[in-house]
Specification:
Blueprint: E1 2-7, H1 9-28, H2 35-54, E2 57-64, E3 67-69, E4 76-82, E5 92-97, E6 106-110, E7 112-113, E8 119-124, E9 132-144, E10 150-165, H3 169-172, H4 174-182, H5 185-189, E11 198-204, H6 216-222, E12 226-231, E13 237-243, E14 251-252, E15 255-256, H7 257-274, E16 278-284, E17 288-291, H8 301-309, H9 320-330, E18 335-340, H10 346-360, E19 364-370, H11 373-379, H12 386-411, E20 415-419, H13 424-438
Parallel strand pairs: 3-10, 13-16, 13-18, 18-19, 19-20
Antiparallel strand pairs: 1-10, 2-4, 4-8, 5-6, 5-9, 7-8, 9-10, 11-12, 14-15, 16-17
Helix pairs in contact: 1-2, 7-8, 7-13, 9-10, 10-12, 11-12
């Protein structure tokens, strides 16, 4: 920890005023030129006295958690104790951090007096913008003397590392629980009768049942209507495949698309584990990156979150051909493959369509893409200049190209989800439950 003393902004302003006044006095009365140096010396003495009266620092602590989540406020607490405990000063604290923790790698925290004299405290709440290890490197504490002419500053090395994990706030939230309750998920988590593809039993027909389930032969034998009941398939394989290339690293609402996709995917993974299915993660960019083992129980959900945390950000375009070929060779049975990706050029889109169409022959494929709200805003924005016209026409062309690609994916047998990032998680869960009821995974 190093302690330094320096003149404050008020002292610098006073010095400038004194210099101008001394220049005026010396030009009017040359014999009085010594007034300027004397005043400057007196000011320097006052700065030194003020700095001594400000006192030193007894303690300077930075308290932060060891882990946080992308996009969620991360509390970082700063506690300080000054030697003389003046109430007229207002200490200011700053931290040098990894840019993924705070914009520009700097976090300023306002300190307020604590109950004990001389104690100050404050809490910053940065929202990490990217996953991975992030470090708080050092901290600065600065406070002024009673005259406001001098300021003391202490610099302390912190070296505290914080692991930024994928955001699973939707899993903990009440909105997902309400949605699953309304969607009848409690019936899916248990042995379901009435939906699915595996025959379970015969039961008396009830109003509201699908008439196609009526077993007419058994009904004739029993002299009343009897319907077939089915059981939902379990132990299906779900693979969450992430494009970690350049297109998915572009931000949407301040957070990279890949992080938005990871949050939606982990939400669906939690639901799938509750429904007794098996879930794995696969990441790819210019080459395959991560292939996690299949997780089979909700108690192992943390393993999926840890695997998702290793998905790095890449500035190359994704190689769909290599990635999907690799994934196909690793899957020995029919699975539901959920692909999170985006596209910016027609060549890449053609390869993506070709590989997804190839996967459909053996697997069920679900393609998830986030709607580009900025593109929609440009296309539908107010036209005020020729430049606005050019931008709107270009945006509309990109939107049409995007629609063509998604239509071709649907024609190839791929199920497509396109939605704003805010609702992509629930849309994915809803689609997964619909596919599971159809019994078309295994």
């Amino acid at each position: 920890m190093t302690l330094a003393l320096a003149p404050s902004a008020r002292a610098v302003r006073l010095l400038v005023v004194m210099a101008v006044a001394a220049l005026v006095v010396s030009s009017v009365t040359p014999a009085a030129w010594t007034v300027g140096p004397a005043a400057a010396g007196a000011l320097a003495l006052l700065v030194l006295v003020d700095g001594l009266l400000a006192g030193g620092v007894v303690a300077f602590r930075v308290i932060a958690a060891d882990a946080g989540e992308v996009g969620e406020p991360l509390p970082i607490r700063i506690e300080a104790q000054l030697a003389r405990g003046p109430r007229w000063t207002r200490p200011q604290a700053s931290l040098a951090t990894d840019p993924r923790l705070a914009p520009g790698g700097r976090l300023d925290v306002a300190l307020t007096p604590a109950i004990e004299a001389g104690h100050w405290q404050g809490t910053g709440h940065p929202a990490p913008s990217r996953r991975g290890p992030a470090q708080i490197v050092r901290g600065w504490l600065r406070w002024q003397g009673p005259l406001g002419l001098a300021q003391r500053q202490v610099v302390r090395s912190v070296a505290h590392q914080i692991g930024v994990w994928p955001n699973i706030a939707p899993v903990r939230g009440t909105a997902l629980q309400i949605f699953l309750r309304e969607a009848g998920f409690s019936r899916i988590a248990r042995r379901i009768r009435g939906d699915g593809s595996e025959f379970e039993a015969l039961a008396e027909y009830q109003p509201g049942m699908d008439r196609r389930r009526i077993d007419w032969k058994s009904s004739a034998r029993h002299a009343h209507l009897v319907a077939r009941e089915y059981e939902i398939e379990r132990n299906n394989q779900i693979v969450l495949a992430f494009d970690c290339g350049q297109a998915m690293c572009e931000p949407i609402a301040g957070i990279a698309r890949i992080d938005r996709a990871v949050t939606a995917a982990l939400t669906a993974a939690w639901v799938a584990l509750k429904a007794e299915d098996r879930v794995a993660l696969f990441g790819f960019a210019a080459k395959p990156l991560v292939m996690s083992p299949f997780v089979t129980a909700p108690s192992q959900f943390r393993r999926l979150q840890a695997a998702a945390a290793t998905l790095d950000y890449h500035d190359q375009d994704a190689n769909f051909t290599l990635a999907m070929a690799t994934l196909s060779t690793r899957l020995q049975r029919r699975s539901l493959i959920v692909v999170f990706s985006d596209f910016t050029d027609s060549t890449g889109a053609e390869m993506m369509i070709e590989m997804c169409a190839g996967l459909v022959r053996r697997h069920r494929v679900l393609f998830v893409v986030m709607r580009d709200e900025d593109l929609d805003a440009v296309a539908g924005g107010t036209i005020a200049s020729p430049g606005d016209v050019a931008r709107a026409v270009t945006a509309q062309g990109l939107i049409r190209q995007r629609a063509v690609v998604l239509t071709r994916l649907r024609q190839a047998g791929v199920r497509v989800i396109e939605a704003p990032w805010q609702s992509i998680g629930l849309r994915l869960v809803e689609t997964y439950l619909a596919i599971k009821r159809e019994g078309s995974i295994g």
